[in-house]
Amino acid sequence: MVYSQAKVIAGGLAHIPIVISVFYFIMISFNIRALEYAEANKSIKPKSNVLGSKTEAKPLMAVKAETEDVKETEVKEEKAQAIKGISNKLEEIEKKAEDVKEKVKKKQKDKKKKKKKKI
């Protein structure tokens, strides 16, 4: 039995979503396994057995707040350093631009002087 080109193309297009869904489910199953493996193999920090250690038990919310504050200050410091670096580069570029501007002015004056001498 011979099929027309239109039927063959329509059949192929109809099967594309089916093939995509099969590969999608395969991908999901592999991702779930990878996540479970990662969770199972997380390294657990060993507790130190220091004698006479006097540490205060802080509530979890306080610890989270402290870590967030530390992260925020680190981010602020990084931003400040980046801004300082950019401002230094900007100053260097401005100095170079001024030097180039002065050189161009000198060259233009020299050209005017040469033209006046020729006349």
From TrEMBL:
Domain of life from the UniProt record: Bacteria
Transmembrane segments: 12-32
The name this protein goes by in its record: Uncharacterized protein
Bias-annotated ranges (Basic residues): 103-119
Keyword Transmembrane: yes
This protein's UniProt keywords: Membrane, Transmembrane, Transmembrane helix
Region ranges (Disordered): 98-119
